[in-house]
Amino acid sequence: MSDEAKAFTQTVPPAETAASSRQPSAKEQAWEKNTLQPTLKKNPERQKEFTTISGHPIRRLYTPADLPDWDAERDLGFPGEPPYTRGIHSSMHRTRLWTMRQFAGFGTAEDTNQRFRYLLAQGQTGLSTAFDLPTLMGYDSDHPLSEGEVGKCGVAISSLADMEVLFDQIPLANVTTSMTINSPAAVIWAMYLAVAEKQGADWKKLSGTLQNDILKEYIAQKEYIYPPEPSMRLVIDTFEFGVKHTPKFNPISISGYHIREAGSTAIQELAFTLRDGLEYVEWGMRRGLDVDEFVPQLSFFFNAHSDFFEEIAKYRAARRIWHKAMVDRYKSKNPRSWALRFHTQTAGCSLTAQQPYNNVVRTAIQALAAVLGGTQSLHTNSLDEAWALPTEFAATIALRTQQIIAHETGVTNTVDPLGGSYFLESLTNEVERGAWDYIEKIDAMGGMVAAIERSYPQREIAEASYRYQRELDKKEKIMVGVNDFVSQEKSLDVLQIDESVAHRQAERLSKLRAERSQAEVDRRLAALRKAAQGTDNLMPLIFDAVKSYATLGEICDAMKEVFGIYEEVAIT
Amino acid sequence: MPEKKIRVLIAKPGLDGHDRGAKVIARALRDAGMEVIYTGLRQTPEMIASAAIQEDVDVIGLSILSGAHNTICPQLMAMLHEKGMDDVTVLVGGIIPEADIPALKKSGIAEIFLPGTSTQDIIDFIHRKVPQH
Asked: Is the ipTM of this complex over 0.95?
């Protein structure tokens, strides 16, 4: 590894590092001497150093001197072909726009079902389900630890009965559904498949995405239940089950979103996410799965932050890295395994509670970066999300933002309109190099599970997050309305979730427990517990338990008895 | 005689795992010369009150983003009162709708810091509230 590559990790190199190897043309040198220097003498630049929001140094001007070894046919190529810099489809958004997929979920299944049907009526093209914290942690709504949290950050789903209500009158054969669930993903997926079965939908045609990315939970979002080994087993169980039964469903969405929200840099987001992806591939192969059979269904999920070009460079670099890794490391022969497909969500952490209407602007710019970076699907945040889950009013503006980008701006008229820009191509190279450096470092630690156990990615993110906070405190970085351009505004009307949701859920659960066959539930939970002690794929057993109306909490507890629970070493 | 350092317990109650804010604050207070203990995730009010007694802290900082503050805060305040810990300064940081602030303050929360607060504002507040011994 070159010293230059090393310089991009951990510490930010001085702005002129890249310049040392630059060999500007005679004309460029003349411009610098005759035009630039006299101007700078009169009007110095506003800052000594210009960096991205991640702290990556940016030069004054990019010219051919910044791309000395760059080969357009090799490094840029053509869309739909390796190395996929320009996108994974040959005509990209000219043929098909990205899926406009707004994440929604709050209150009870009835509340969210209504919002889903509203969003579909407004022209949204895919569903995306947000679950509440008890559901995400595998607790039923009536568990003591669920108190105060039921229906607050998403919809409360404790059993198949709730899932039936959630998708009532929504034909699962015709919509694609994304479900943001991780530790209990296998259970929630089993509930979804059971509803599809009841609707008479063919599993082979079902399409949608399960988040199911446990590694980033240990790294960033911290919604884990079991230790890494059994958690990874459950993930691979869903891969294996999916290859057989639901070939069009994405069993995982390998997520950088939460890593970025936890405060990482763009390069860290990219590197940790792709290294997570490689970890899943390796565990799948160890299970005996054929790379080219399961990898095509692996999907990715990135953040769209405010530093416009850095984000676009990140998506382009992601595609290049994935292609290279699939071909070089795993000898993949199937182009569908090489092409990195991803969903994007605009950056929640960039939204400000102050002057919230400014968030519409931030979100529009971030969404534009995602589109120019070639996203397959997109969620735009609502202006009120620094305060609460969005109101219908705010959620509608967020969806309209995507529709404006798609239909008014003209950016979809041509593929990768920024391709060939000296700046963007240089930045794509640098972001890619920085990410490879991290990936190789994690390889050397023995992989991502080993790195997580050493708190390596957690520590890198905490460092970056603290550095950014200090930059804000010192006003080296500006957040409009927060540390500069401050003004007083009256507060927003935000969505309120009251405790009646918890009461309704508790009633529904006690009715469910009274009406179902307890003997059947006990039998199926015992079978699951027994299988968990062995090595069989647990999906069929979880599916059986779900269909007997065993609750989410009961199923997760049965596995906890065998797998134990994970507790992290808290670092600050 | 050397000044005794201000002791702060940073706690993350509830089921939420988004700990970016808690960790940044813990580090900023430590850099400002305070003794900081971070509880880690998913602490019940009972665990937080016990840790506060055990660590003999002057300040408890709660990070709550999930909307569970109206349940968690009164429970913790009642528990601290029961244990004779009324002199501990309790701060909340996170996503708290403005409408909920008066009731939380009435329950004994000394201050609520909303998103965008600079770490210096929090440090200054603690220095005003807890004079060095």
From this structure: no
CA gap A276, A296 in Å, rounded = 16
- The whole-number pLDDT of residue A126 equals 85
Query: How close does chain A come to B30, measured CA to CA in Å?
Result: 10
Interface of A with B in 422-481 (CB under 8 A): 462, 465-466, 469, 472-473, 479, 481
* Bridge partner residues of A130 (DSSP): A180
- Ordered by start, the domain boundaries in chain B are 7-128
Whether B61 contacts chain A with CB within 8 A: no
* pLDDT for position A3: 43
Exposed / middle / buried, residue A474 (Cβ in 10 Å: 0-12, 13-18, 19+): exposed
Which residues of B are less than 8 Å from A572 in CB distance?
10, 22-23, 26-27, 30, 36, 38
Mutation target vs A (from B23, B47, B92, B120; most A CBs, 10 A cutoff): B23
Bridge partners, residue B38, by sequence: B10
Average pLDDT over residues A38-66: 97
B17 to A223: CB separation less than 8 angstroms, yes or no:
yes
User: Is A4's pLDDT higher than 70?
Assistant: no
Q: How confident is the model at residue A123 (pLDDT cuts 50, 70, 90)?
A: confident
β-bridge partners, A407: none
Predicted TM-score (pTM) of this structure? 0.94
- What is the set of domains in chain A, with CATH numbers? 73-473 (3.20.20.240)
How confident is the model over A204-222, as a mean pLDDT? Answer: 97
Per-residue pLDDT at A16 exceeds 60:
no
Closest Cα in chain A, distance from residue B8 (Å): 13
Secondary-structure class of domain B7-128 per CATH: alpha beta
- Would an 8 Å CB–CB cutoff place A568 in contact with chain B? yes
Contact assignment for A473 to B71 by CB distance below 8 Å:
no
Two tokens at B13?
Answer: 């109650």
Query: For residue A42, is pLDDT > 90?
Result: yes
Q: Cβ–Cβ of B97/A222 closer than 8 Å?
A: no
Q: What pLDDT does A1 receive?
A: 38
Interface touch B15/A145, C-beta < 8 Å:
yes
Q: Residue A296 in contact with residue A336, Cβ under 8 Å? A: yes
CA pair distance A260, A41, nearest whole angstrom? 39
Identify whether the C-beta of residue A58 lies closer than 8 Å to the C-beta of residue A15: yes
Which residues in chain A (317-356) have CB-CB distances under 8 A to chain B?
349, 352-354
pLDDT given at position B133: 53
- From the list B51, B56, B53, B96, the residue with the least C-alpha distance to B73 is B96
Of A148, A221, A462, the CB nearest to B68: A148
For residue A213, give the nearest of A262, A253, A272 by alpha carbon: A253
For residue B2, the model assigns a pLDDT of 62
Is 50 exceeded by the pLDDT of residue A17? no
Give residue-wise pLDDT tens across range B90-117: 999 999 998 999 999 999 999 999 999 9
For a pLDDT cut of 90, what percent of chain A falls above it?
Answer: 91
- Per the CB < 8 A criterion, the answer to whether A214 and A182 are in contact is yes
Confidence band (pLDDT; 50, 70, 90) for A13? very low
Average pLDDT over residues A297-311: 98
Give helix A228-245 / helix A185-199 axis angle, nearest 10°: 20
**Whether A206 contacts A196, CB under 8 Å:** yes
The tokens for A244 are 């057989």
Q: Which amino acid is at A369?
A: A
Nearest to A473 among B14, B16, B119 (CB): B119
- Do residues B41 and B15 make contact, with C-beta atoms less than 8 angstroms apart? no
Let me know how long chain B is: 133
Sign of the C-alpha dihedral computed for residues A74, A66, A439 and B18 taken in this order: negative
